[in-house]
Amino acid sequence: MKAMILAAGRGERMRPLTDLTPKPLLEAGGKPLIIWHIEKLARAGFTELIINHAHLGEKLEAALGDGSRFGVSICYSPEIEALETAGGITNAMPLLGPEPFLVVNGDIFCDYDFTDLPRELGEFSAWLVLVDNPDHHPDGDFALRQGKVLDDGEHKLTFSGIGIYRTELFSAIARGTKARLAPLLREQMAAGRVGGEHYHGLWLDIGTPQRLHALDGLLRNSGREAHSE
To answer: Locate the Nucleotidyl transferase domain: which residues (predicted)?
Structure first.
């Protein structure tokens, strides 16, 4: 199964850190955020990676290269202007191919074991990993009931930014156009075609300089700096 890391966001909330550095290359624990992802994916057997980019994308390609030093193969899907999640995935479809694929948001940090993901989707068109609601997103996104993800429910969880998708989910989107993922997922949820799980471990949305600083302190205090991986 191929994996895509979403890395095209401008990182407005991260400014001025992202004025000269693409957000995925910001460091925590002595290592760029995106490299934590790449190494975790490689250990789980995901060796064919696609990374989209827009803002300062050339710096991302220069830093990561073809991925060989991480034991993976990296292809890039450039965007002149960030196309949002579904638009970015659709734009990368020629690289992703016809089989279901994994997508990971580039601006999260988690201890999720990617080997736990289902490799077959069965009746589902998407599989989402949900997490406990962080303080900055207390209302959550979706509910989870008996292995199915629902748009409505009494106890909503937060979408982690980790999901597996079938290519057909994006068939109505024209390449090169902006499109959000949530409306596509909600349509499939209404048909009972989105499965998922609740992950209870470490997960952080690294959306602000304060959260990046907190993650850096967490990694260093736990002895998980770059030299420890």
So the answer is: 2-121
Residue among 141, 146, 117, 139 nearest 130 (CA): 141
Q: pLDDT tens-digit profile of 138-147?
A: 999 999 999 9
Q: How many domains does the chain have?
A: 1
| Cα 219 to Cα 196: distance, rounded to the nearest angstrom | 28
**Mean pLDDT on 39-52:** 97
DSSP characters over 87-120: HHHHHTHHHH-SS-EEEEETTEEE---GGGS-S-
Q: How far apart are CA 92 and CA 80, in angstroms?
A: 13
d(CA 52, CA 47): 16
DSSP state of 80: S
Query: Which residues fall within 8 angstroms of residue 136, CB to CB, at 6 or more apart?
Result: 205, 207
User: What angle is formed at CA 51 by the lines to CA 210 and CA 143, rounded to 5 degrees?
Assistant: 65
pLDDT tens digits for range 167-193: 999 999 999 999 999 999 999 999 999
Can you give the residue range of the structural domain that contains 201?
Answer: 3-223
Which residue carries 């948001």 as its tokens?
105
**Assigned domain for 26 exists:** yes
Q: How many other CB atoms sit within 10 Å of the CB of residue 69? A: 9
Strand 3-6 with 101-105, pairing: parallel
Let me know if residue 134 belongs to a domain.
yes
